[in-house]
């Protein structure tokens, strides 16, 4: 793996993890009595930027390196299902994340006055955030399992 | 200093903050329960402990992922990534995150939650240090379950003993 | 001053439509080699094609839903619908690739 591919591999992991952290911060603060809606907007926006950047960096690594150099190794080994099930699911489910975080940001930005007053809306926003974090976490864990299937 | 050393140092730092933070959180909760109420100052102390734990968790997450990238580049493969010790450590980390989430929203009894959380921190630390452990995933998780029960009763004993004292 | 909220429902609906589109593109691509081949030829990689098309679906459907002006559906219901569609779509894709790997 050359340095460019290492950079994009590390970048997509770092940015995706950052997205998860911003969303977790959002989830932990939305129900606080003194919830700061400025920070909710900032967290959701930063999560969106993180996942967009992870999309680009991960996409570069996946299309330029993974398919040619990693996938054949996994498919030849005893854990071929790691690519055919986990990686295939991961690469497509990842595409949900930017749209989910954009929606969360839009709800927080456009309806922040309602989020303060309407418990049903803040619960729905929390549900959306929780789903997005869960999907992102599942993607991260899949990535760890996929890396583990690449042996000598 | 190469990346491996740097990341391991960070990982140790994250562990120290997390284990230390959770230990002191338990100690302070037991101490502050003496008068059966948590005042503003005591609440601030506990918030600080939680912040330290969260910082430790973030440092652990990034340094841990960095170490996994190094493992990936060395092509260590299934022997390391799918070892009982590593899988158990990852499972315990997920349990820790889940319990922290439940405790934040008061979806779990706080005494039970804090026992699981504290036990998880110590278990993850022990598994990280104990390189020579070659037990199966299920054996380690069974050991973890027993450890959680032990920690729960230890904390209960500490609470009752302290409350009875002057 | 234009009220900001009317844009919210179109965004949520577009996100729902986009996720459904991603699942359909994925499943159709796996079941029809020609369809997947078209993606690869047109966009140099099938995944790049799905990324671009899903983005286009989202961007084009927002103004369409905005014009349709679906005020009667509450934002709360739409957000929960998005949550349900996301979870279902995740399950569908995982199950699809699991079953495909068996054959």
Task: Summarize the entry for a quick read.
The complex is a heterotrimer of chains A (152), B (166) and C (103). Chain A is an all-alpha fold and 152 residues long.
Can you characterise this structure?
The complex is a heterotrimer of chains A (152), B (166) and C (103). Chain A is mainly alpha-helical. Chain A has one domain: Four Helix Bundle (Hemerythrin (Met), subunit A) (Up-down Bundle), CATH 1.20.120. Chain A is 86% helix and 0% strand. Chain A is elongated and about 55 Å long. With 166 residues, chain B is mainly α. Chain B has one domain (3-164). Chain B has six helices and no strands. Chain B is globular. Chain C is mostly helical and 103 residues long. Chain C is 83% helix and 0% strand. The A-C interface holds A 55, 59, 62-63, 67, 81, 84-85, 88-89, 91-93, 95-96, 99-100, 102-103, 106-107, 109-111, 114, 118, 120-121, 124-125, 127-128, 131-132, 135, 138 and C 4-5, 7-8, 11-12, 14-15, 18-19, 22-23, 26, 44-45, 47-48, 50-51, 54, 58, 75-76, 79-80, 82-83, 86-87, 89-90, 93-94, 97-98, 100-101.
Helix/strand/pairing category of chain C: mainly alpha
Biggest chain-to-chain interface with counts = A-C, 36 and 37 residues
Count of separate structural domains of chain B: 1
The number of helical segments of chain C is 4
Number of helical segments of chain B?
Answer: 6
**Low-confidence regions of chain B:** none
The helix/strand order of chain B is HHHHHH
- Estimate the strand proportion of chain B: under 5%
Percent in strands of chain C: under 5%
The count of domains of chain C is 1
Write the SSE topology:
The complex is a heterotrimer of chains A (152), B (166) and C (103).
Chain A: H1 3-29, H2 37-76, H3 81-93, H4 96-110, H5 112-117, H6 119-148
Helix pairs in contact in A: 1-2, 1-6, 2-4, 3-6, 4-6
Chain B: H1 3-32, H2 40-73, H3 78-81, H4 84-104, H5 110-129, H6 137-164
Chain C: H1 8-31, H2 33-43, H3 46-68, H4 75-102
Helix pairs in contact in C: 1-2, 1-3, 1-4, 2-3
